Amino acid sequence: MEPVMTAGLTRQDASGPPAPSLQPAPPNCARRSDGSFLMERTQYIQVTALADRIDSVPGSTHSAADESARSVLHRAFTLLNAFTAQKPMLTLGELAERADLPRSTTHRLATMLVKLGALQRRGNLGYAIGARMFDVGLLAPTRSRLLTAAEPYLQQLREVTRATVHLAGWSGNVPICLDKISQPGDHLPPSRPGSTIPLHASALGKTLLAFSTGRVFEAARDHSLRRFTPYTLTGLGPLMRDIESIKDSRIGRDNEEAAPGISCIATPILDQHGECLATISVGMPTPRLRVRAMEQSLLRAAESIARAHNQAYVA
User: Is 119 within a domain?
Assistant: First the structure.
């Protein structure tokens, strides 16, 4: 339903390269066929700050091997942090420049990260975040609870609406697809868990903005309002008016703004404090979309997911 900045496989795609071989998912952690996890800047800062604080502990000593390991870890996170929603794929030269590392060092670290599944090599196009990073991200308690709570209701929503269903949320300041359940025969643009979504041109993205306090202007500044179709909102004024409307109705709409012939509607999933956990959407070819008939099913699914998530949080 929602077009993405990177292409990949969904759970129902039959073409494309096979997903990397991964270790079995831990209990209560949903397995995804493929995906990428964009490393949050706050996580990077926390890890490097922790390493720096080790030196300040009285009596702490480090061997040359310890220092070497810390240096490799620091540089590896620097490489992972170089990827953004606007640049999900980087050549070796771009990666070296963004990480401020020598090209030879960048190549050596990138090769190691590819072997570990943290990066993937995309031929002559360069490097992208690997599927293993998305799997690791799923282990975060909040993300894992949300996916577990959402799974049955996403399936139910797809069966009721006969539409492709998406679940989306934030990874730092990057909007990503968290889950997708395809409706056979819809032929929507390719998307997969871990892929980024356009904030201004998708029902999922605009609804995330509407219910994420303080992110609207920051997102509009950092994410170019790229035109995907003649109907894409590329001006801040129209986008802001649309977002205000979404706040009032709790329904976001994409009327062929992201892909020709495809429309969708979305709604937020709010926790017990009114904070937006994620957004869900249904999408299909425009002639088949019945907005009024599907709104109630969408709202009920969001409320059910929120309730199941909150109960799991209390438990």
Answer: yes
